[in-house]
Amino acid sequence: MDHFQYRDGRLHAEDVPLDTLAEAVGTPFYCYATATLERHFDAFAQAFEGQRALVAFAVKSNSNIAVIRTLGRRGAGAALVSGGELRRAREAGIPGARIVFSGVGKSRAELIAGLDAKILQFNVESEPELRLLSEIAAARGQRAPVALRVNPDVDAGVHHKITTGLKENKFGIEWTAAREIYARARDLPGIEIVGLSVHIGSQLLDLEPFRKAFLKIRDLVVMLRQDGHDIRHLDLGGGLGIPYDGGPSPAPAAYGALVKETVGDLDCLLVLEPGRMITGNAGVLVTRLLYRKEGATRTFYVVDAAMNDLMRPTLYDAYHHMVPVLEPPADGETLLVDVVGPICETGDTFGKQRALPAMAAGDLLVLRTAGAYGAVMSNTYNTRPGIPEVLVSGDQWKVVRRRLEVADLLALESLPDWLEADDEHP
């Protein structure tokens, strides 16, 4: 469920009409509904009632500080993969004790920042990273809390670009090497082994891969404890999928029951890292139709949003349901159209042969389920400045990231001395 519904013929975000926002902030823009963020977080957290658990929001899915703060006020922690995300989480008020830091390529500066923030744990993904963290922590007279991220070689059955748990993926430590590396970690100065971490992929719509991975993890926890390691944290990652196309998806309660069944008796603090499941349906991308173009074999809706604003369709062939802001009549004309952006790339396509109402230049179109991996993956290709993000709560709204201007982009650049002279140009 989300809080983007038609009222009196206009699509609203909670109590705010989206066309009102479009007039105020311009298009394209992202809009997030606080009520949906809170509802989805609460549904996930309630799935682990009675268990010792930390729901650490995956910041990479939506790193807007207002979104992180909204979830933090509900009790969320933060799961990070960069120093920049650590700074965002701290700016949003997430305490270090509710932060976990993953990532296959943490830099020295990022490891130091995590130590400074006194985070709950580092999810270490290689032996060289472990040794660097040991060196840094020991030199500072600290002990770094560490969970090794193990790669269980489980096929998540998702797009190859978002699977992370196969042995050929770059993430984590090979399953069969885990005990040996844990043994070496125990002897390293500045390292405190606190747990085990796993994450097998994103957008899983079937719970069975989770079951396979968690049962493997269970066995490894038992073996590591037999080896004398104090495994008291178990980070199960994220990856629970959502229905972009309206199809079925696992309920948080079913996922929670699976976790309890497979690892619930290990007496660990369970760390869960939902991202997409919390923010996906809480956001939309609002765009305006520039042209209705009749091609030789197709009709194109050319909109003012582009692949730089929402990369998922180009990057993953991802699907986003589309609806007009003005509710079409039940008996209105429907066309099969390709919805495309203005960037000079064939890949700048949001959907092909979609059944949409007949629309004219100036009409507003909404791409739904855009709250995760939307704004965070945007870029400035074709010198297209970043678009605003708006957060709605009831009948209130606020621009929580302003629209950039071309001047903002140009201000980041400078000419070398040898190009500063006034040249004559033909």
Tell the overall outline: globular
Cα separation of the termini: 60 Å
Q: Write down how many β-strands occur, each being a DSSP E stretch of 2 or more residues.
A: 21
Strand content: 25-35%
Radius of gyration: 23 Å
| Average pLDDT reading | 93
Q: Helix/strand/pairing class, anyone?
A: alpha/beta
Q: The biggest beta sheet, please?
A: 9 strands, mixed
Low-confidence stretches: 155-170
Q: Tell me the number of helical segments per DSSP (H or I, 4 or more residues long).
A: 12
Helix percentage: 25-40%
Gist of the model:
It contains twelve helices and 21 strands.
Question: Mind explaining what this structure looks like?
Answer:
By secondary structure, the chain is α/β, with parallel strands linked by helices. Helix content is 27%, strand content 26%. The chain is built from twelve helices and 21 strands. Strands 4, 14, 15, 16, 17, 18, 19, 20 and 21 form a nine-stranded mixed β-sheet that branches. The protein has an eight-stranded parallel β-barrel with strand order 5-6-7-8-9-11-12-13, surrounded by six helices. A three-stranded antiparallel β-sheet has the order 1-2-3. Helix 5 crosses helix 6 and helix 8 packs parallel to helix 9 (252-263). It is globular and about 70 Å long. 45% of the residues are buried. Residues 155-170 have low confidence and may be disordered.
